[in-house]
Design a protein that fits this description.
about 350 residues; alpha/beta; Non-ribosomal Peptide Synthetase Peptidyl Carrier Protein, Chain A; Rossmann fold; 3 domains; 7-stranded mixed β-sheet; 2,3-dihydroxybenzoate-serine ligase activity; Thioesterase; phosphopantetheine binding
Length: about 350
């Protein structure tokens, strides 16, 4: 296919941003961001760059859906409309006759964790991902698992093909949201397909630590080895500056990541973990599928293979998958999960 060069100032600036961010010599306006070398961390850099160049807030979810320069330029030309973008982002259009796969947000709230899984699935499979409400400026976060599930169902009904089963996957805490959504859909008489939990624990034990969310952000989200007592004792502004500096140095956020975005990330960890602590999953009579890692290096103690889901579902299916909790969704590992998800969501009707 012929590469189409940028055709106006907006496309030219976005193309320059892509070349600089990804490190490639040339890019066409219809090239897919994730097929020319982009990934989740670089996507954040592009979002920040677009804000810097055009004064327009583009969400990570919009970038996943508008994954070409031409589509992004349309958003930029439209400026910042009064209506906030939906947190439910379409990562891939696929075949409209097939039931979509929906990815539910982990504790970080971002949709970017599903890019690699989406890429590893067949290209005809529609894929949507939900970003936690509260990550964007001015959004009022949802504070219970039940409310997040109900809000997702309301949004997804507008795009879900009538009569098709609901296929739900959730990485880490996202699996709890998938479980509760399945429970609410079943109660409403909707056909539920795959309820896939990617190494998800049903509950959170804070151990009485009031800064459990901050600790999770440091260790899991930003992957920083800082003294928690020193960090918690700092004033909020100084703490934010320290976390931003250290995270940039560690490469877990891009160099132009801004303080406000980091603070919203901190808040999102707290909201999601508080919701998890206050939730007791029970009452779903259908089948739940757990994708359980075989490398337990990230677990402080060895957890049971079923992660305590057996008693919480009508039937539990457990698949052992390679990697540890963080690497399971990275290239080289996620392909195993994708093959299992594809098999579970493909019916005779789809073949």
């Amino acid at each position: 296919m012929t590469t189409v060069a940028p055709r106006d100032p907006a496309e030219l600036q976005i193309a320059d941003l892509w070349r600089e961010t990804i490190g490639i010599p040339e890019v066409g306006v219809h090239d897919d961001f994730f097929e020319v070398g982009g990934h989740s961390l670089l996507a954040i850099s592009v979002v920040v760059g677009i804000r810097r160049l055009f004064g327009v807030d583009v969400t990570a979810g919009q970038l996943l859906e508008a994954n070409t320069i031409a589509k992004l330029a349309e958003i930029v030309r439209g400026g910042n409309p009064g209506e906030a973008p939906s947190p439910l982002a379409r990562l891939r259009h696929g075949d409209p006759e097939l039931a979509p796969v929906y990815g539910l947000p982990p504790v970080s709230g971002t949709t970017l964790v599903y890019v690699r899984l989406m890429q590893a699935l067949p290209r005809n499979r529609p894929f949507w991902a939900l970003q936690s409400v509260g990550l964007q400026p001015g959004e009022q976060p949802l504070t219970t698992v039940e409310d997040v599930a109900a809000d997702f169902i309301t949004r997804a009904r507008k795009v879900h093909p009538a009569g098709k089963p609901w296929h739900l996957v959730g990485y880490s805490m996202g699996g709890v949201y998938a479980y509760e959504i399945a429970k609410q859909l079943h109660a409403a008489g909707e056909p539920v397909g795959l309820v896939g939990l990617l190494d998800t624990r049903p509950t959170a034990d804070t151990g009485g630590d009031e800064d459990y969310a901050l600790n999770a952000l440091l260790r899991r989200g930003l992957k920083l080895d800082l003294d928690l007592d020193e960090v918690r004792a700092m004033e909020p502004d100084a703490r934010a500056e320290l976390l931003l500096t250290e995270a940039v140095a560690a490469g877990t956020v891009p160099a132009d990541f801004d303080r406000d975005r980091l603070l919203r990330m901190v808040d999102m960890y707290r909201y999601n973990l508080d919701a998890l602590v206050g939730y007791d999953p029970a009452g779903y009579p259908g089948t739940v599928t757990l994708y359980r890692v075989t490398d337990h290096a990230m677990e402080p103690v060895l957890l049971p293979r079923d992660l305590d889901w057996t008693r919480r579902a009508g039937e539990l299916v457990v698949h052992d998958v390679p990697g540890h909790h963080f690497s399971m969704i990275e290239p080289g590992q996620v392909e195993t999960i994708a093959a299992l998800v594809d098999a579970a969501t493909t019916t005779e009707e789809d073949k």
